[in-house]
């Protein structure tokens, strides 16, 4: 099978990246030391090629009404231009098709950023619902073709300052930008750039969306001001420390989002209806999503390991060794009566090792939040 490539594939190879098959995409897992890349993001600034993800522009007079029924969170929260909203898109049975970010730029233009591996099914589903509801929304995917966009995430305590060095034209529009907001700056050295104060690491920074033809120039400009390239390995340890879900691992089309710790992304209170709402109200929540700290030596926490509590069993969805905490950590779905502070047992091969249940996240903005 021929792997898909981002516009930065050649750059990664010049930098000596170790490339892997990531859901059909040829992606860098690291450029040398994954630990150094992780610490660079926590302490200074790093950048990730996330161009395998897909920008989808929705345009037309009925976009807001269409999104009200399409996603589980309430787009009526988006009243300030540039405001972003994290949400899930659900099946009628209440399972997760994808988790995504929605940006509001005008009443006739909302932008989605969807996951790489789900992009094709996401767009097919959105088009199907557009036809079904007669919404007449124009749906444009921006990952391929003449209007393709590249995506680079620049993350870390010094990320914004580094971006302004490369994109000084964006500073005025983004200096007072609040988290989970974005601005589109039309005239830069790299064309029109969407600068979003969002990310997947638990650190501050910007996610940049801009013409794919400018990808190498943008990457090299960021490299020249000292932004360290980081691969999928560091991205995974960073997001896990930050308690952030990964589609296909912590939730998927067989998981109720309430069981995946995503209740905060779902509006069940307003009278607005959306696909999957009735199913969620009927099923309710069956498990809770919490963190684990391994307290004994002799194993590493990984997905699908069984967790044994007094009242029943649960399962680890993602696990790793935290470079920031120097400790094994995990995300897990656990019985509803398990409490923060409880001790549980994790089955690791032929051992049962003690772990402490903690509230997520583990690390945010460079600070360790659990002990």
Order of helices and strands: HEEHEEHEEEHEEHHEEEHEHHEEEEEEEE
CATH class of the domain at 9-52 and 145-240: Alpha Beta
Which structural class should the secondary elements be placed in?
alpha+beta
Strand content: 25-35%
CATH architecture of the domain at 9-52 and 145-240: 2-Layer Sandwich
Adjacency order of strands in the biggest sheet:
10-11-12-9-3-13
Proportion of residues in helical segments: 10-25%
> Rg from C-alpha positions?
21 Å
If you consult CATH, what is the topology of the domain at 9-52 and 145-240?
A: Gyrase A, domain 2
Q: Give the count of helical stretches.
A: 9
Rounded mean pLDDT score: 97
What is the end-to-end distance? 45 Å
Q: Tell me the major beta sheet.
A: 6 strands, mixed
Q: What is the global morphology?
A: globular
CATH superfamily of the domain at 9-52 and 145-240: Probable tRNA modification gtpase trme, domain 1
Low-confidence stretches: none
Q: How many strands? A: 21
What would you say this structure looks like, in words?
- The chain is built from nine helices and 21 strands.
- Among the domains are: 9-52 and 145-240, Probable tRNA modification gtpase trme, domain 1 (Gyrase A, domain 2, 2-Layer Sandwich), CATH 3.30.1360.120; 55-138, Aminomethyltransferase beta-barrel domains (Alpha-Beta Plaits).
- It is globular and about 60 Å long.
- The protein is α+β, with helices and mostly antiparallel strands.
- It starts with 8 loop residues before the first helix and ends with a strand.
- The longest helix has 14 residues, at 119-132.
- It has helices at residues 9-14, 34-43, 63-70, 119-132, 159-166, 171-174, 215-224, 232-241, 277-283, and strands spanning 18-22, 25-30, 46-49, 54-59, 84-90, 96-106, 109-114, 138-141, 149-155, 182-185, 193-196, 205-211, 228-229, 288-294, 306-309, 312-322, 327-334, 343-348, 351-358, 363-364, 367-368.
């Amino acid at each position: 099978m021929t792997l898909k490539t981002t516009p930065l594939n050649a750059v990664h190879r010049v930098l000596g990246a170790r490339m892997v098959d990531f859901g059909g995409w040829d992606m860098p897992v690291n450029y040398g030391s994954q630990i150094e890349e992780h610490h660079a993001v926590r302490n200074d600034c790093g950048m990730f090629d996330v161009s395998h993800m897909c920008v989808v522009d929705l345009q037309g007079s009925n976009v807001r009404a269409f999104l009200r029924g399409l996603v589980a969170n309430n787009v009526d929260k988006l009243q300030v231009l540039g405001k972003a909203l994290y949400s899930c898109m659900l099946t009628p049975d209440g399972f997760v098709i994808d988790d995504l970010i929605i940006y509001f730029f005008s009443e006739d233009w909302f932008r989605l950023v969807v996951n790489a591996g789900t992009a094709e099914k996401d767009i097919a589903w959105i088009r199907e619902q557009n036809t079904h509801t007669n919404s007449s929304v124009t749906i444009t995917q921006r990952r391929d073709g003449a209007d393709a966009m590249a995506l680079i995430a620049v993350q870390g305590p010094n990320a914004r300052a580094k971006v302004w060095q490369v994109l000084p034209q964006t500073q005025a529009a983004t200096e007072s930008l609040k988290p989970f907001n974005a601005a589109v700056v039309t005239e830069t050295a790299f064309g029109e750039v969407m600068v979003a104060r969002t990310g997947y690491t638990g650190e501050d920074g910007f996610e940049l969306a801009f013409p794919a033809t400018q990808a190498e120039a943008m990457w090299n400009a960021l490299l020249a001001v000292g932004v360290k390239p980081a691969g999928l390995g560091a991205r995974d340890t960073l997001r896990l420390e930050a308690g952030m879900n990964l589609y296909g691992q912590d939730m998927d089309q067989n998981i109720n989002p309430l069981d995946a710790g995503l209740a905060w992304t779902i509006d069940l209170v307003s009278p607005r209806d959306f696909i999957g709402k009735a199913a969620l109200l009927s099923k309710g929540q069956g498990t809770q999503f919490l963190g684990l700290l391994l307290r004994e030596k002799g194993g590493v926490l990984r997905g699908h390991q069984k967790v044994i509590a007094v009242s029943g069993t649960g399962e680890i969805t993602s696990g790793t060794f935290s470079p920031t905490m120097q400790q094994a950590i995990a995300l897990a779905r656990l019985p509803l009566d398990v409490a923060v502070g409880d001790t549980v047992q994790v089955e690791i091969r032929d051992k049962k090792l003690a772990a402490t249940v903690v509230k997520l996240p583990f690390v945010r903005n460079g600070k360790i939040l659990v002990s």
